[in-house]
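@channel sequence for tomorrow's demo:
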Amino acid sequence: MPETPETASRTPADFWFDPICPWAWMTSRWMLEVEKVRPVEVRWHVMSLSVLNENRLDELPQQYVDLMEAGWGPVRVLTAAEQKHGPEVLGPLYTALGTRFHNRGLPNERATIVDALKEAGLPEDLADAADTDAYDERLRASHEEGIGLVGQEVGTPVIAVPGPDGRQTAFFGPVVTPAPKGEAAARLWDGTLMVASTPGFFELKRTRTEDPRFD
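structure tokens (generated this afternoon):
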């Protein structure tokens, strides 16, 4: 996408996501709100819970193992789409996939992926990438770029922005439901950047008492 004076003045926020994660989906919808109320431009990148957990499967319950095995398909399709059609397609395709997986509760299967590709204006045959490792090298590189900023103990999403000193400030999350809108979205963004850019700050957490609410 060509740079315009408007986008050139916006702060890039690099966002790594796995489309099967409902919490990353909530954070991504919040980031779209942040774009409306702060001079921020989201740049989408793929990461993979399947890659993150591939060496831990014997420690996980079978239900999560099954989820990780099925999780390869969507991230491979996203990576193939990026490789063939450019990074600008990731945002629309993520929205199309996430709306189906989370808001509509559709299964992670070929028909759902094909329908999302059509909505995003992309060729249906990109769905073939779900069943091949042809794009795994690029997928792993994108995943490592994101997770390498925050460490192996977290998951998706990862967000990175230029810090006050010019170096990247990166963090996992925030984990939130429902996705804040308007000024509430702006306050959360400002506060997240404040704590994340504090030298020596590592963690702020409390027990989740709600499931994701896709309002």
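heads up for whoever presents: The longest helix spans residues 62-85.
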